[in-house]
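ok so dumb question maybe but i'm new to this and my supervisor (M.) told me to 'just get the structure for Melanocortin 1 receptor' and walked off. so i did the thing. is this what she meant?? sequence i used:
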Amino acid sequence: LETAVMLLLEAGVLATQAAVVQQ
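this is what came out, is it supposed to look like this??
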């Protein structure tokens, strides 16, 4: 569960960064 949560958080961060770059 911990690994899944970490991957989910990391994916969220990457998605946020991508959204900021696209703006």
